[in-house]
Design goal:
about 325 residues; alpha/beta; five-stranded mixed beta sheet; elongated
Length: about 325
């Protein structure tokens, strides 16, 4: 059963003999022979062939068992690496697209200085996809919010609780609050009541993302809706559009460093303002997430510590945030 068990795992992912054979660098005939022998050995069919290839209930059972075998094999390799004190290996680290430019450049540099023989492979994708990748043993650990964890067998270590802010350009503030400008800047720096911003155009994230869920819950409590003119998933595009006076948007703590950098390139009278939101009690717990049964080599602890430090209140980006907020008052 365990001979070439990766053949079964790849075929379960591809659900196509030709594609799976290409990934495995074997012939279509060799893969068909492997599957036929496996099914004859157990006396059950693991895949339905028509109308298209799909796992049977026996196939699902086999897949779950072989995923556990794969995890045991990975854990064994990591433990033997520890015993040998071998500082080489590979870590597959996941992160969402928006957080990638904030964390990854510094992470790659610092981790390589500590462990030059360890390859750090970065995966940029969505939180739900990373959850599945951890369960499928194709991802070791990832950074994400924990409020939308839906997959069992995951463990997490919280690194920061992010707060939500509103972002609006100076020009839009002057346009939509002309009778209060510039006195409103000091007023809003103490907390924005979104009921006063219903006439302002907004860009929001897609509905299934953590930041949008937090905003929608707050709006529901206020009993209001916002003038949403666009829904986009890329945070950096939100802020660039804000800088073009297209709309206001929202921002979680970690992304504020990007706004600070953007403001440095803008004229003083066109900068972006960042304000806290009054009565906004929700926070976004950000954590390092991994399989609860995963055994890591020691150098993964160094990876965790670097990520936690980069996300901590004393980090470089956080000092920029404080500077950004202080400049408004």
């Amino acid at each position: 059963m365990f001979n070439n068990y990766h053949y079964f795992l790849v075929l379960s992912e591809e659900l196509n003999l030709s594609n799976a054979a290409k990934r495995l660098f074997i012939s279509h005939q060799a893969l068909s022979k492997y599957l036929k022998g496996l099914e004859e050995s157990y006396g059950v069919a693991f895949f339905e062939r028509k109308p298209k290839i799909a796992l049977t209930q026996a196939g699902i059972t086999m897949l779950n068992a072989l995923r556990q075998v794969e995890l045991i094999e990975q854990n064994l390799g990591n433990q033997l690496t520890d015993i040998k004190e071998d500082k080489s290996g590979t870590i597959h680290f996941g992160i969402t697209e928006g957080r990638y430019p904030i964390i990854v450049p510094k992470l790659l540099k610092e981790f390589r200085l500590l462990h030059p023989k360890v390859e750090l492979v970065i995966h940029r994708t969505t939180s739900p996809e990373m959850q599945d990748m951890v369960v499928n043993n194709s991802l070791d650990i990832f950074l994400s919010g924990i409020s939308n964890i839906t997959v069992a067998n995951l463990k997490y270590e919280k690194v920061i609780e992010e707060h939500m802010y509103i972002v609006i350009s100076d020009n839009l503030l002057r346009q939509y609050f002309s009778d209060q400008y510039p006195a409103c800047i000091e007023k809003f720096s103490k907390g924005v009541d979104l009921r006063q911003f219903q006439h302002v155009p907004f860009i929001l994230n897609k509905k299934n993302f953590n930041s949008r869920i937090m905003i929608d819950q707050h709006l529901a409590k206020l009993g209001i809706t916002l003038n949403t003119i666009a829904e986009l998933t890329q945070p950096d595009i939100h802020y660039l559009l804000c800088a073009e006076d297209y709309a206001a948007c929202f921002c979680l703590t970690m992304y504020l460093s990007g706004i600070n950098h953007l403001n440095q390139s803008l004229p003083k009278d066109a900068r972006l303002h960042v304000f806290p939101i009054a009565q906004f009690q929700s926070v976004n717990p950000l954590a390092l997430i991994y399989h609860k049964n995963k055994i890591f080599p020691p150098y993964v602890n160094d990876l965790k510590q670097i990520v936690k430090r980069l996300c901590s209140p004393d980090s470089y980006y956080s000092s920029q945030i404080q500077s950004l907020l202080n400049k408004q008052t």
